[in-house]
Amino acid sequence: xVQLVESGGGLVKPGASLRLSCAASGFTFRIYSMNWVxxxxxxxxxxxxxxxxxxxYIFYADSVKGRFTVSRDNARNSLYLQMNSLRPEDTAVYYCxxxxxxxxPFDYWGQGILVTVSS
Amino acid sequence: SYELTQAPSVSVSPGQTASITCSGDxxxxxxxxxxxxxxxxxxxxxxxxxxxxxxxxxxxxxxSNSGNTATLTISGTQAMDEADYYCQAWDSSTAWQVFGGGTxxxxx
Lengths: 119, 108
Known about the structure:
The complex is a heterodimer.
Chain A: E1 3-7, E2 10-12, E3 18-25, E4 34-39, E5 45-51, E6 58-60, E7 68-73, E8 78-83, E9 92-99, E10 106-109, E11 113-117
Parallel strand pairs in A: 2-11
Antiparallel strand pairs in A: 1-3, 3-8, 4-5, 4-9, 5-6, 7-8, 9-10, 9-11
Chain B: E1 5-6, E2 9-12, E3 18-23, E4 32-37, E5 44-47, E6 61-66, E7 69-74, E8 83-91, E9 96-99, E10 103-107
Parallel strand pairs in B: 2-10
Antiparallel strand pairs in B: 1-3, 3-7, 4-5, 4-8, 6-7, 8-9, 8-10
């Protein structure tokens, strides 16, 4: 069974940093592209970042470029999102999602992890 | 940047057909997919490559994509179909994944 489990969320102040993790199991992680998607309160889904299977290709939405860094460790079956210089508008539930076709669609999603940026 | 537009809300009576549309410039030249997200749950892929259903998705869900509009059709809508629905496409010029703003489907 494919499972994606996010961790690392929480409440932080503006300007702080946070690192999200996504532990994958039930599939051959190293051959799939992976993505981070978020949903802010009262808003819709927003794609944040994606990485190819071997990290050769990495992309970011304009809203997080220069502040967020995506990485993966194929030996540990894990995906990460390093979030720096956090802003209140980064408050959202963050999901990791497996990429079925590189690019897209996203066929499996984690349960999501809440990140709250507030003073 | 590429944009996808959805109506904020659609209402349908139980047993009737619901149509949810997604508009974007030459969207028909891209693959469109659709996600269902119930309150408090993670998104679920219901249609990909315009009209393909993943395993486990009921046959009442179907999709089409032509011109500037992709459409998700739910036939014989059930109360359990009440959810937010999002379209998605890949913008090759930026390599970004783009989501529509979402449509809240109400079954009443």
